[in-house]
Amino acid sequence: MKSTVLVLGALASLATAQSLCDQYGYYAANNYYFNNNMWGKNSGSGSACTYVDRTSASGVAYHVQWQWSGGDNNVKAYPYSGKTLSNKKLVSQISSMPSSASWSYTGGNIRADVAYDLFTASNANHDTSSGDYELMIWLGKLGNVQPIGSQVATVNVAGQNWNLWDGYNGAMRVYSFVAPSGQMNSLSADIKQFFNYVSQNRGFPASSQYLITAQFGTEPFTGGPATFTVTNWSLDVN
Ligand SMILES: *[C@@H]1O[C@H](CO)[C@@H](O)[C@H](O)[C@H]1NC(C)=O
């Protein structure tokens, strides 16, 4: 009887998702990591929890439940999955970054983006919560939210059209590629091509900038209760 209880306990813990509800609740496995990252929570009121549904070397799945109000123009959180970058490379030394992402949203009054967030810095050991440059790829733009800076062009990268925004967050230059539909629920692409575009066209110094983070998640502003579900996200940096 006792051993049956132990076995059932082990099965239950395998089946239970990791629940990350603390401000910076963190979990890592199989060269991916997760952070509930409620960095801007004090600009409004609400909460978020990230639930890790699957980790494997070939991709991860997770979902996030959140609700936020107040501070309409402030990002409250960036719950995400990231790829562990064990030896940092200069962007010019990266040959490809094959990635796929599949996501969906349910809930009411959602004002949020769904985005890749890639930081680079001239110092490979720069603090990973910012960089000298930030490159975002907005697959989702739900509600009247917008990136930093202003829209400067519509461009074709990785076989898709994007509205390109360019601007500064303090001293950090931010490039944001926004899917015109605001609802690109899946992407399978070599995302190194976004860096190639900004190197060739927008003054990004690829040969002196290290890629320090590569993440995918959602930035809620206000709304909910909402559920953001990522059925698969994968990234390799070659
Ligand atoms: C996730 O995507 C990667 C890359 O396309 C693929 O190799 C992997 O099989 C996918 N995993 C699932 C569970 O769909």
From TrEMBL:
Entry-linked Gene3D superfamilies: 2.60.120.180
Example of a GO MF term: cellulase activity
Leader sequence residues: 1-17
InterPro entries (UniProt xref): ConA-like_dom_sf, GH11/12, GH12
Keywords: Carbohydrate metabolism, Glycosidase, Hydrolase, Polysaccharide degradation, Signal
GO BP term, pick one: polysaccharide catabolic process
Record's keyword annotation contains Hydrolase: yes
Record protein name field: Endoglucanase
Species of the source: Polyplosphaeria fusca
